[in-house]
């Protein structure tokens, strides 16, 4: 089985619609794909309706969190999307995305980038606006060569000159909410240092003690040494280890299935989940 547990669609900051994403996942030879848009489940219904035969959909979301001033992301799988407390927190995060993006547009303009809110809004469309949309605008303007070039201290990295904080969950609260909604919680790309400051390993241990289920080890932003370090940490803490592409369509260079999750780990994730269940494709 080929299992990719971290992808994004136009419901947040990917370039594939949810329907395109599941069709592309099947074409890439995946057996299981998780749709984990940022702080939203808006793409799940479309993905379900278009799900090709032979492909299983795992519903999820990537939750924006912050711990001691450091931004981190929590992948939540197979939770009940209607659980009111978690739904309310997702809405608070989403509602803060527009004023935050407008503030970053303002900072970029102060730095000499001729970006406009109208340009960013056009790129984001109906998706949850985020930094990749601003980065795409900067590429369009010729300020940078690729979206990844925006995620530096010079521009939009977590400690960058144009970065603006947004409403984010406390990760301990996020884990509690995900578990209460019957979901499974995995720390996304925990040591992706190129994105900015990462939480220390001691914090990962505290999150594990609070109910964190796993950490994303195999990811494009983790080199071989980092992956080995994370596997050792996971073994010490009794955490599951996942692998994923973090696919964003044409907005990033990674491809569906570039990193995958072991079938036994996937089986354990589905065993632990009670809020929702994987959706088998029926040729939608």
Question: Summary?
Answer:
With 284 residues, the protein is of the alpha/beta class. The protein contains 9 helices and 8 strands. The longest helix has 27 residues.
Describe the protein in words.
- The structure is a single chain.
- Helix 1 crosses helix 2 and helix 4 packs across helix 5 (131-140).
- Strands 1, 2, 3, 4, 5, 6, 7 and 8 form an eight-stranded mixed β-sheet that branches.
- The protein has helices at 18-27, 44-50, 84-110, 117-124, 131-140, 171-180, 201-209, 224-237, 263-272, and strands at 3-7, 32-35, 56-67, 70-77, 184-187, 214-218, 240-243, 279-280.
- The chain has 284 residues and is α/β, with parallel strands linked by helices.
- The protein is globular.
- It contains nine helices and eight strands.
Structural class: alpha/beta
Distance N to C terminus:
21 Å
Question: DSSP helix count?
Answer: 9
State which percent range the strand residues make up.
Answer: 15-25%
User: What about the largest sheet?
Assistant: 8 strands, mixed
Task: Provide the succession of SSEs.
Answer: EHEHEEHHHHEHEHEHE
The whole-number mean of residue pLDDT values reads: 95
How would the blueprint of this fold be written?
Blueprint: E1 3-7, H1 18-27, E2 32-35, H2 44-50, E3 56-67, E4 70-77, H3 84-110, H4 117-124, H5 131-140, H6 171-180, E5 184-187, H7 201-209, E6 214-218, H8 224-237, E7 240-243, H9 263-272, E8 279-280
Parallel strand pairs: 1-2, 2-3, 5-6, 6-7
Antiparallel strand pairs: 3-4, 3-8, 4-5
Helix pairs in contact: 1-2, 4-5
């Amino acid at each position: 089985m080929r299992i990719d547990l971290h992808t994004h669609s136009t419901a947040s900051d990917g370039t594939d619609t949810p329907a395109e994403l599941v069709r592309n996942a099947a074409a890439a030879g995946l057996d299981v794909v998780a749709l984990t848009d940022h702080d939203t489940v808006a793409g799940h219904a479309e993905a379900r309706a278009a799900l090709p035969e032979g492909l299983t959909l795992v519903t999820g979301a990537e939750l924006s969190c912050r711990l001691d001033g450091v931004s981190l992301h929590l992948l939540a799988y197979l939770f009940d999307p209607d659980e009111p407390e978690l739904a309310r927190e997702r809405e608070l995060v989403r509602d803060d995305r527009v004023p935050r993006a407008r503030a970053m547009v303002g900072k970029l303009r102060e730095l000499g980038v001729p970006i406009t809110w109208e340009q960013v809004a056009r790129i984001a469309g109906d998706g949850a606006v985020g930094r990749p949309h601003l980065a795409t605008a900067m590429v369009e303007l010729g300020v940078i060569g690729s979206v990844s070039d925006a995620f530096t201290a010079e521009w939009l990295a977590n400690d960058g000159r144009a970065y603006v904080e947004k409403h984010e969950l406390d990760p301990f609260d996020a884990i509690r909410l995900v578990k209460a909604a019957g979901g499974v919680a995995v720390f996304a790309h925990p040591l992706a240092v190129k994105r900015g400051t990462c939480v220390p390993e001691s914090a990962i241990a505290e999150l594990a003690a609070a109910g964190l289920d796993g950490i994303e080890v195999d990811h494009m932003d983790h080199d071989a040494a980092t992956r080995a370090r994370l596997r050792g940490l996971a073994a010490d803490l009794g955490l599951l280890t996942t692998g994923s592409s973090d696919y964003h369509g044409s907005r990033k260079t990674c491809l569906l299935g570039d990193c995958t999750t072991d079938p036994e780990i996937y089986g354990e994730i589905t065993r632990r989940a009670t809020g929702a269940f994987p959706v088998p494709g029926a040729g939608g």
